[in-house]
Amino acid sequence: MLTDLSSYSLADFLLFDLTIYRGLFGLLNDNHRPIALVLTLAACGTLWLLHSRRPEGARASAILLALAFATSGWTFFFGVYQTINWTAVYPGWAFAAQAVLCALAAFLIAPAGAVQMGQTAAGAAIAAFVVLYGLFGHPLAGYVLGDEIAALEWFGLAPDPTALVALGLFGFWPSRWRFLLAVVPVLWLAASAVTLIGLGADLKAGLLIAIGLLGLAGVLWPTRRLNALQPEADDRASAPRPRLATSLAAERARTSHMGPIKADRPKTLLPTSAPARAALRTGTRPPS
Questions:
Q1: Are the CB atoms for 80 and 24 separated by under 8 Å?
Q2: pLDDT of 3-32, one tens digit each?
Q3: Are 193 and 205 in contact (CB under 8 A)?
C-alpha cells in the first residue's frame, strides 16, 4: 500500500494542469479588468497615505482590502476556479471572512489622534516593497516566467497578488489587528505555492514564498512609539543645563550665608572741627 502511494506525485492529486490554470486568469481579466485597474490605482494612493504617515492611511487601507478580498473571492474562487476545482469554495469563504474582518477593522482602528505606534524606516521600506511587488512585480514576474499578457495576475482579482499586497499594507498598520488579519493571506500563499509546485512552476512558487516571507517579516517587524517621543523631547528641552544648574545652586548657597542685604544709609558731610560745629549751631559764619 505504501509502495503504491509513493508512486504518486503532487500533480496526480490536481484536477488540472498549468495551461488550464493559467487560462483561468485570462477569463478573469476579460470579465473584470476594470475592477483590477480601479483597485490598483486605489492601492497606489493608499500606499502614499501610509508612507507619508497620514492619519487616515490605516483606515483607508482596511477599506481597500475589504473590497479587494471580496472581489477576489467572488470572481476567482466562486467564479472561474470553482469550474475546475470543487474545493475552491473553502478558500473562497476564507477570503469572504477576511473581507468582513477588514471592514470591521476600518471602523475599530483607533482614530488618527490616538495612534500610538508607527513603523520604523526599515519596516516601512519592507512593507512598501511588498506592496509594489504585489501590484506590479508579480504580474511582471509572471510574464517573464511564461504567462501571457492577457492572463497576468492583478491585485483585486487574482488571490496571490491580493494576499501579497495585504501583507505589505498590514506592515504599516499601528494596530494589533495586523497579526490576526495576516493569517488568511499567509495560509493562501502557502497553499498557492504548493499548487504551483504540483503544476511544475517551481520557480514561480519559490518567488511567491520568498516575497510572502518578506511580507510576513514586515508585519512582525517591531514598531516604535510616536506619542512618547515628543513629550520626551519637550522634557529634555525644558530641563536646565548642567552648568547653568550648578552655577545657580552655587549662587543660592553663597547668598544664603550672607544673610539679608542691608541698604546703605546715605552719608552726610558734617564739619569735624569744633569752631565749625559751634558756628553751625548758632547759624553764624565760621571763622576762616
A1: yes
A2: 565 666 666 567 788 999 999 999 999 999
A3: yes
Burial class (CB in 10 A: 0-12, 13-18, 19+), 121: exposed
Residues whose CB falls within 8 Å of the CB of residue 133, separated by 6 or more in sequence, listed in order? 164, 168, 211
Cell of 176: 494589533
d(CA 157, CA 74): 9
Q: Could you tell me whether strands 117-119 and 223-225 are parallel, antiparallel, or unpaired per DSSP bridges?
A: antiparallel
Break the chain down into helix, strand, coil percent, rounded to 5: 75, 0, 25
Distance CA 19, CA 271 (A): 127
DSSP assignment letter at 118: E
**CB neighbours of 53 closer than 8 A, spacing ≥ 6?**
118
pLDDT one-digit tens code per residue, 73-127: 999 999 999 999 999 999 999 999 999 999 999 888 754 433 444 567 888 899 9
Q: 64: which 3 cell numbers? A: 481597500
